[in-house]
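User: I'm putting together a small comparison set for a docking exercise, and I want a reference complex before I start. The sequence is below, and the ligand is F0G. Could you produce the 3D structure with the ligand included, as structure tokens?
Assistant: Of course. I'll restate your input first, then give the structure tokens for the complex.
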Amino acid sequence: MAFGHRYTGLIERYRDRLPVHDDTRIISLGEGNTPLIRLNNIPRQLDHEVELYVKFEGLNPTGSFKDRGMTMAVTKALEEGSRAIICASTGNTSAAAAAYAARAGITAFVVIPDGKIAMGKLAQAMMHGSVVIQIEGNFDDGMRLVKQVAAEAPVTLVNSVNPYRLQGQKTAAFEIVEELGRAPDYHCLPVGNAGNITAHWIGYCELSAVSGDHVTEACTFCKGHCRFAGGGVAGQRPKMVGYQASGSAPFLRGAMVDQPDTVATAIRIGHPQSWDVAWKVQKESGGWFDECTDEEILVAQKLLAEQEGVFCEPASAASVAGALRDIRNGRIPEGSSVVCTLTGHGLKDPDTAIAQASRTPIKVAAEIGAVTRAILDNMD
Ligand code: F0G
């Protein structure tokens, strides 16, 4: 990057491919431009040779991929004259909505399931000054309620049913293709509402298109906002693979799940909003859905933290848990390039992390003998 060039977020970066005007006031916190980290230590233990990357979306300003969508949703809400936004959330959307509303000087109302969101996410929503409404119900109940409110009150709904959200989120695919020089063979993501897997597919399709406006059947979801981008490798798109937590896996059950449950609270969703379109993504891309148990998710989270130095939240680790299983069983063939999206930062959910860490702190007296002993006892 040239001297004097300040990165000012993904809307400025991809202005020509996003539905903004020259005079649009852009609400940004410098989101996007997240690292694509090649894993070294974990692949070495696999019998299968693969090129395995993680796109660490936890390094966005509020610690999750939601910032990509929220910069677009809040920018457009403001442009359309809105003074308030609303969302239902398992935590990350509410954190992003709260932060971008603060930046824009408007009000955020966030509806969250009581007791089922990670502590860091609640702290964010509270600290950014949003109105936090805790319901005695789950995310799906919240979603139903905010849709009703937004239909009647002058508030803009910023869940991923807002088409601008997916427009922002598609830019993650642009960044990946720019860095690799091509699309990966497989792109693995955790799936809740299935907005993000859809957004990535829109991004890859736009890049791979030779001509035309709507470049994928799934793209009809953009409601006319997408623009032909080109610039990638014509026709080359990844297989999209979505992993769900076993207790919240409607795509695996083939039907909605009424009482979803999982340690990965971010994806504790039984009624995905992007149900139809996500099936199209799966079919168009030739990918698949699969599920991971809570145990597999936590093992993968710990593996990434201990062996690669990458701390993601439990939901994010579902992508790696699933990918490693599918690499081992050959469904993802040897020689493939694989990108797993790590959707949120591990600091979001300190309670789950502390509860499963391999080493607990060693308490000793504040004197050199005790500290030395603790060190010597724990030398590998
Ligand atoms: N990973 C994390 C960390 C999430 O927060 C979410 C969704 C997902 C994955 C799933 O993405 O819904 O696009 O399939 N979180 C939403 C929220 C529901 O309210 O923060 P999806």
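The pocket of F0G is lined by residues 64, 66, 89-93, 160, 190-196, 266-267, 313, 315-316, 343-344 (CB under 6 Å). The radius of gyration is 21 Å.
User: Thanks, that's exactly what I needed.
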